[in-house]
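Weekly structure sync, notes
Attendees: PL (lead), two postdocs, one rotation student
Agenda item 3: pending single-chain targets
PL asked that the sequence for the first pending target be pasted directly into the notes so everyone works from the same version. It is reproduced below exactly as submitted, 368 residues in total.
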Amino acid sequence: MSVHIDIAGLRQEQVAVVPSPLAELGMALHALSEPGHHPGLQGWVTGVTARLDPHLADRMCEADFLWRTTFSDLFMPFAGVPGRSTLPGATLAGELDLLDKLTDEQFVDAALEFTCAQPYCSHGPDALSDGEVRRRALELAAARGPRQLRFSERLLADPPRIRAWLRQFLQDCDEAFFAETWSRLRHQLAADTRHKTDLLRRKGLAEALAAVSPAVTLDEAAADITVDKLGEGRTTTGDGGLLLVPTSLGWPHLAVLHRHGWQPVLHYPVGSPELAAPPTLEQLALRMTALSHPVRMRMCRHLARSAYTTGELAQVHGMTAPEISRHLAVLKKAGLITTRRRGRYVLHQLEVTVVARLGSEFLEGILR
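Predicted structure, written out during the meeting:
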């Protein structure tokens, strides 16, 4: 599973690396709502939460489904502006002005994404103009809880009112905690932007994408960018551009905005504890499957302590050598054991460091 971006006809000058204060505020709200996703931000989350005004904290809960899962495309409105070439604003106020440029249909469609699971990669009737789509949206919202139903009802009844509410809420968040956070983070983001832009100019898009994340690859012959994620999607730059937007608060999330008709955006973490070469999701699944068998788990107990030959493992586990060899082949294919020859003997041993990383690799993989 992966997300693909068709970049046929894309010129290098149409690719931009630009930080976004509004996208970073969206990620800040996400981290405050789901601190378990971001163990490295526990200190920041605790500090912000401790001094947060109770009234603002209550308002955060009114529509937290816009940023709790990851965060809504509403936090990257520049991608939805007609022409698909608009860059993020330099300030939060500038980006809120871009949010105002979205049509009511765009705003409602993006706001309903997490509430009602509206189609993302394709275009169809919208909830403002189609009664059946509206009915289904409210039905799905009701299934997700009374708060989401109330929000969806107000959104569909009076989009301008909800838009004004959201803008005021984001401005209040900026005053309460984000302005201070942004003043600290923007220097790191600016440095990363300069680095990626320099790579793009000197070495090309493939090198810049490789520096974004090992999970992002470019097939230049096919003019296709592949993002290794537990999800499927497809979009195209078309006659627009491609944006790379760094985030200091985002690890382990690597987000791809691929909404139909919007400019594609890669929202990637910087300064993160991401492994230098994390496995692909296919490799991760292979490792998890390999370790799920009780016989192979018992074999790993021995192989973690010392190197064993196939014959020794067969004797220990009361199995035939061919049976043990089949289990060893599964572990080796998953990259969980090493094999070396000593004289006429072939010794197998567990890659303890690889197994030790599985927890963080699993978390990074499912949250990517």
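Discussion points:
- The first strand starts at residue 2 and ends at 6.
- The radius of gyration is 24 Å.
Action: rotation student to compare against the earlier draft before next sync.
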